[in-house]
Amino acid sequence: MTVGPEQGTPGRISDPPVEGPVLDGFFLPQLSQTELDELAWETRSWGGVVLRMPVVTPHLIDLVCQRLLQIQADHLAERPVMDIVEILGRVITRWSDPDYYWRRQAEELLPVVTGYAPDMVRRGLKDYLKTFRRDRLLRFLSQDFENPLVLDGFQPNRAQGRSRAYGPRLTTQIFAGNVPGLPVWNLICGLLVKSATLGKSASGEPLFPVLFARSIAEEDPALAACLAILHWPGGNKEVERAAFTHSEAVTATGGRAAIESVAARLPPGMPFVPYGHKVSFAVIGREALALNRYTETARRAAHDASQYDQQGCLSPHCLFIERGGAVDPKTFAAALAAEMSRFERSKPRARLTLEESAGIERVRSSYEFRAYNDDTIELFTSDTGTGWTVIYEEEPERFEASPLNRLLRVHPVDGMDDVERLAAPVRRYLQTAGVACSPDRLDDWAQALGRCGVDRICAVGQMPEPAAGWHHDGRGNLTALVRWVDIEGAAEAALEHYDPEWTLPARQDPARRQL
Amino acid sequence: MSFGESLGTSDLLRDRVAIVTGSSRGIGAAIARALGAHGATVVVNYLQNREAAQQVVKDVEALGGRAEAYPADVTDPQAVATMVAEVTERFGSVNLLVNNALRSYTFNPLTRSTAWDIPWQDYQNQFQGSVGGAYNLCRSVLPGMKTTGDGRIINLVTDLIERPSIPYHDYTTAKTALLGFSRNLASELGPLGITVNCVAPGLVYPTDSSHATTDQQRDELEAVTPLRRLATPEDVAGSVLFFASKWSSFVTGACLFVDGGLVMK
Question: Could you tell me if A394 lies within 8 Å of chain B, comparing CB atoms?
């Protein structure tokens, strides 16, 4: 899951610093208490949650990376991948307990840190973490590796030889803060390929990766010791140069500017896995507009657009509604608006910065004006404030990105041809397409959407909850990190030539020879 | 959304002296605030939670109303009589009564008692809280209401009485009895100009009592509710305002379902 350009540094309003208990906003199990005491520290408040973090210097990065590399070599490099799956599975099982200490901490603190509605965070975390249960981790592995044991040793490959996959010894991972919980996925990817992770937490939400790392430490301290989580101002060149120097791979999740900035500073040849600016949409077929289906469809679509205030890269920017259903697209837009309103009531959107609100107001007023004497445009909005906006627009000029925070455009279409035409300008950035149509049309739709450039097709209502093992942003997320070593089949055959039986002098055993 | 925005303020109830039982939190608190915001003098009755009751009083005052917190166990006839006497002494005859208190109950679909293991005592406890409490309050306020002739009694029941989606045997049976109690009262007190009506909320969320309901249960309930969401304490307070106001002068013995259309009756 990645973010749009506006969300590189989420603009949540922070309240003035409040005196509260100071919590640790870092994870550094590699350093002794004495070493920690010698660091320079700073505290910052996130909407009232006060976090203590070390001031990160290139020197600190050098030290932490050296330790991480050592611990990775000692405890992770040769650890069987199924062991790692077991432990992570146990950690996730713990998180599935509503009374688990770290889960309660997360449910209490993250809404304050991010401004997201508490119920939305609570249910979002639950839905997200369950996609990492043990069985799903296995699927995740087998999605990328036909035989996951290639992570442990050389296994037969299709080319008659054998292959082994080596993960980076150390990966620098730059986390996103737009959707709470997201860095769990980065941490798990790293561990599954036996890489230590130096994680840079996001300024929007720096806490969750720390809580999750601590929960791993409770289950298996050695595994957790392969993780370090720090926060430094994004783009700090000296610090990042030090980090990249020690790393064998870099991942970054963030807005376009952040990704480009990192990419420009990577050492030549450094494997880089960016999860950058992406946009998503949904296509709703006439079957989903049946009289006994359309309200439910609207409810699902409203969920997709409202969850995490539309901040995820999986959140739809717009809906394409097929004409010819039992209710017309405009009626559907009205039903959608009613559902957006209900979602807002139970899970109110976070407060916005003035700039963000102004962005929504600008879009609204441009349509409001046109809607007066134009039947092809209709504007549905929250009673007060900018809580949610649905814009019904029959003839859009092109795919217009939403300013997000629950602003959704609805465009009627006659079929997939219209969708392909409208989505063409953003094809490089497309990610998820939610679909609601009859099963027999899925293949045709999937072909068309694949041509459009999307890399994930899911049901409307499930857009924010990708399946485990999805080729996130169109690639194998684990294979992107590994380096393959092949033993050629011909070599194995050729080495028979040097079998000791043929090449070493036979041992003398006069007694046997006589037999 | 702040309270004032959702249900407004007025002086429609300025001549009303109201007792709302069990109003330190949840639905009762929302009712007390709503009545106060529309001009009634409100007695915030509570059993234990003094601090919460004081907060409701402050809320009412902040909305420009008059309120006082008063502890009394509604199942104790003497305590109720004393409360009503003191309130009457202080503010005048009680002419608006909202019976909202019930014996502490947790709506937990996973730990509820089944038909085959629920003890009779549980039913009795609920009868005592719901019907007994209303009985005690009515007994105490009726003399005053009879004199002035324009009393309003509003009893809180539940939509489970028509649609027990989850069989909370003791609770729902007692609430059904309270509906019967109310209709008989309406019949008897109509000639005296006193109306008796019921408000039947669906699942109200969030409140302390409904906290144990599961996400899934709430999702399913929302999906089958025509208005597609759960009730809030303010939704319930809105209907109580209607029965408390002149707009319902010719309605008695009615039961208004506040559950987004789940029960249509």
Answer: no
